[in-house]
Amino acid sequence: MQAKSEKMQEKREEMQEEGKEMKKELGVLYEELDNLEAKIEEMEEKEKLTEKETLVLKKMKSNFKRLKRKIERKSKENQTKSKNKNRRKKNKTKKSKSKMNR
Fold it and tell me: What segment(s) does the record annotate as region Disordered (predicted)?
C-alpha cells in the first residue's frame, strides 16, 4: 500500500516537473515570437525586406505558433489526465467505503 502511494507521489512530482518545463518552453516561445514580430515590423518600416526574407520570417513565425499550440495542447492533455485519474481514485475509494459499510 505504501509502495503504491510512493509511486503515485513520484508520478505526481514527475508531472509537476513536466508542467514547469512546458511553462518555461512556452514562455521562451512567446518571447521569441514577440521578438520576431517586432523584427518584422521594424524591417517592414525600413522597407529593406525582400520577398524571400519576408517568406522566411513568416515561416519562422508560423513554426513558433505551431510549437506553442503543441505545448498548450500537451499541457491541457496532462491536466485532463490528472483530473480523470483523481476522479477515478475518488470513485474507487467511495465504492470501497460503501462496501465496508454494508
Answer: 1-23, 60-102
Angle between helices 51-101 and 2-46 (to 10 degrees): 160
Q: Per-residue DSSP letters for 32-90?
A: HHHHHHHHHHHHHHHT---HHHHHHHHHHHHHHHHHHHHHHHHHHHHHHHHHHHHHHHH
Q: Which residues contact 39 (CB under 8 A, 6 or more apart)?
A: 57
The number of folded domains in the chain is 1
Q: Is residue 59 part of a domain?
A: yes
Average pLDDT over residues 94-100: 72
Q: Which domain holds residue 41?
A: 33-68
Q: Is residue 38 part of a domain?
A: yes
Residue 73 to residue 33: CA distance in whole angstroms: 18
Question: Which residue carries 480523470 as its cell?
Answer: 84
Q: What is the mean pLDDT of the chain?
A: 81
